[in-house]
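re: ur question from earlier - yeah i can do the single chain one, its not a big deal. heres the input i used so u can compare w yours
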Amino acid sequence: MKLKLALVFSVLTGLGVACTTPTPTAAPTPNTSPVEATVVMGYIPNVQFAPWFVAEQKGYFAAAGIRVKYNWGFEVDGIKLVGANQADFAMLGGDQIIQARAQNIPLVYVANYYNSFPITIFSLKEKNIRTPADLVGKRVGLPAFFGATYTGWRALLYSTGIKETDIQVRDIGFTQVAAVTQGVVDAAAGYSNNEPVQLSITGKEINVIKIGDYSRLVGVGLATNEKTIAEKPQLVRGMVGALMRGMQDAVNNPTETLDITIAKIPEAGTDRKMTEAILKSTIELWKSANYGYVDPAAWAASYKFMRDAGFIQNEFDITKGYTNKFLQ
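and the output i got, formated as tokens:
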């Protein structure tokens, strides 16, 4: 997600299958004033949040008795604010939830947003890097040795058994596209719906290795805290239901979704072709046979990786970090 703030700490999720389930419904509430719910988004507004804009435009949040207040800024704020009960929800990756729970921060993942971890290793086609094994001996650029790209990179090595010492890993900052096109590195880590899209839209032929094809890291989802779940279950259920309706509409009606997004974020219309390409790529991360479903097996695998790779030191019950009970 590079349309985010440049210095955001991204500690953020292959492709899903076409929707085959009925559209979930947002829980209705009595005719009372809407409840304001703060959601820490962690980025600047962009098309990758289109399901929120669709749900808002079509009245799904209103039907659930909710008025969403967006908190745009730094992603790490989501962990702090929701963990301290100073915000109701945040968009967070499964790896962030696991690291937070390891520090006794009572975050709970209540709905899946991305169907896989969105990090990729991309390269120009001429480099002939098609599989993880092709990276051995190559120069690979990371924007930082922390955050989602680093977590995804480590997960790729972990799942394939490749040693990091067999690859020339370089810290290139947030310059992945330039570093790859200028030959500074042979490949770089980035988001599937960002850097590879930028290269493709300019006519570059590329190869992409998707972390999600090799690792079961849990992708980005909607998170809240234990206190909100205990005291405001109807709010959580309404928020989850409305967002899932918005997500399905975004997948099923991409042209309408693009128009709604541009109306919400006029600057997204300055390069409609790029925005449309990013939306198309992001739709592949939203698609699901069961929208919002939190896969316990994926959480178990993510927890094991985070422990084995040293991202967390202590053991705890990861099943308390996620739930499916608010899905319609």
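Residues 1-31 have pLDDT under 50 and may be disordered. not sure if urs matches, ping me
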